[in-house]
Design brief:
single chain; 492 residues; alpha+beta; 5-stranded mixed sheet; 17 strands
Length: 492
């Protein structure tokens, strides 16, 4: 609407009987503002629709919109009329896009442009000091000004940096600041709503979308592969406390179960070297579990009005949670793992210990496979026990090597293992000693990799022996991002 027609429309809506400029709730579409008018307004004749109903003075509405603009908007350069028309036609509502001041007011308050212009005029009439605004040549909220939404402060990102710093350099085990930060982040996590079908707390187990997990282990000796096939519950389950190394979600000595939703993700996560063998199996989740779905945090509904005093904090928190999944699953160099994993280990222990959250593990993206929605799952110590399988008698099982190897990139072998069975390997060269009793295997495999049995908890997992497979790694592919080099002051 051009300025002449707009002024004419405003004058047409102004009469001596409506000098007080009351706006009724029906003429304001923004839910927070509308509720305030219904709760606190008086029954008056509306300046805009000329109907009688609960209303509040235009001054109140202008002051409320002014406060929101002063807090969450900044002046911006204008865009072309053609761009604005195209954006409106395509319903492009990118929150940071510059908008004419009148349209910006109309959009956030959900009012007509006639009302928006009246609000703008009152906002422009407020006193200001030159230098408080990015545009010093023209007063704020003038008829030709443009504004864009400015996200609230990065308080939570600053809080995360301080959280990491506290754990790395000040106090690792008893840190009240770190605890307060996590209480703020996760205190209401179960109450948040997300867009789409995802859930922040996802059920896992029989009858659920996630009813099983794949877990892999890499071996550089065939002795280890043999023991993994003979005792898969022990060798492929979570490690014992005395050999449990630190990981993204666990401290050294605290065993947890790392699994993946897909076979290829499980293999990628163990980062096997060329020439090694990977044994992989599916573990059924045999009892109901609850998992914190980190990727779902990127779809949190932000239902707080920009006019609500708590908007800034809620919006900043939702933006932080949006990126938390990527932050937690970002790649970490081996040399930095000890310090860089402190924050994620602390979070995992926090979530595992909070009875009010009642979660058994975390779903998080794979750091080894980008794209394709490849997910890992960590089950906390209390929920990571694997159901025991019947044990073979010592020395009763022999391993027979079969010289029948085909040169594929990955060699698969389905191992059907049962009590009293012999286990056949596919090897390039057979064992030099032919058939070897189990008690001849390397002591490192026999004594240091056994599954730790916790009798005080019920098993959460059961290995499916029919799914055990062996992969021989013959090659590895990488996705690379070239980086240029800029030479300065070079004489050649």
């Amino acid at each position: 609407m051009n300025s002449y027609r707009l002024k004419k429309a405003i004058l047409a809506h102004t009469s001596p009987a409506m000098e007080e400029n009351y706006i009724c709730a029906d003429c304001v579409g923004e839910p927070y503002l509308r509720t305030k008018i219904l709760e606190n307004g008086s029954r008056k004749l509306c300046w805009h629709c000329e109907k009688e109903g609960p209303g509040m003075h235009l001054n109140w509405l202008a002051d409320t919109v002014y406060t929101a603009f002063e807090t969450h908007y900044v002046t911006a350069l204008p865009v072309s009329v053609e761009y604005q028309r195209l954006a409106d036609m395509l319903e492009l509502n990118y929150p940071y896009s510059p908008k004419h001041v009148r349209k910006a007011i109309a959009d956030i308050a959900i009012v007509s442009e006639i009302i928006a212009e009246k609000i703008r005029a009152q906002m422009a009439a407020k006193p200001f000091e030159t230098g408080d605004y990015k545009s010093e040549t023209t007063p704020p909220y003038n008829p030709n000004s443009w504004y864009s939404f400015s996200p609230p402060s990065h308080a939570y990102y600053d809080g995360w940096n301080e959280f990491e710093s506290e754990l790395k350099s000040k106090a690792r085990y008893f840190n009240q600041k770190a605890l307060d930060f996590l209480n703020d982040i996760f205190g209401d996590i179960t109450e948040l709503e997300v867009e789409g079908a995802d859930k922040i707390i996802e059920s896992a187990g029989p009858g659920c979308r996630i009813d099983s997990l794949f877990r892999a282990r890499v071996f550089q000796k065939w002795d280890g592969v043999a023991l993994a096939l003979i005792s898969p519950d022990e060798q492929l389950g979570r490690p014992a406390s005395n050999v449990a190394g630190s990981g993204r979600m666990n401290a050294k000595g605290i065993p947890v179960f790392y699994g993946a939703l897909e076979e290829e993700t499980a293999i990628a996560e163990v980062r096997p070297p060329v020439g090694s063998n990977v044994v992989i199996a599916k573990f059924k989740i045999i009892k109901p579990l609850k998992l914190l779905n980190l990727p779902a945090l990127a779809s949190i509904k932000n239902n707080v009005s920009i006019f609500d005093p708590i908007f800034a904090k809620k919006y900043a928190k939702s933006m932080f949670l949006y990126s938390l999944s990527d932050t937690i699953s970002r790649p970490v160099m081996p040399d930095d793992a000890e310090s860089e994993y402190l924050a994620t280990q602390y979070i995992a222990e926090y979530l595992a210990s909070r009875s009010e959250l009642d979660v058994n593990g975390i779903i998080f993206p794979s750091a080894q496979i980008k794209g394709g929605n490849k997910m890992n799952v960590v089950l906390f110590n209390k929920s990571s026990k694997v159901e025991e399988l019947p044990k073979f008698k010592e020395g009763s099982i022999k391993v027979r090597a079969v010289d029948n190897f085909d040169d594929y990139t990955l060699e698969w072998l389905n191992a059907d293992i049962g009590l009293g069975d012999e286990i056949a390997f596919i090897l390039e060269d057979p064992f030099e000693f032919g058939e070897t009793p189990i008690d001849h295997f390397d002591e490192d495999y026999r004594n240091n990799s056994l599954f730790e049995i916790s009798e005080d908890v019920e098993p959460s997992l059961s290995i499916d022996k029919k799914t055990i497979q062996i992969f021989q790694i013959n090659s590895v592919e990488y996705t690379v991002l070239p980086k240029g080099i800029l030479w300065k002051n070079s004489t050649k």
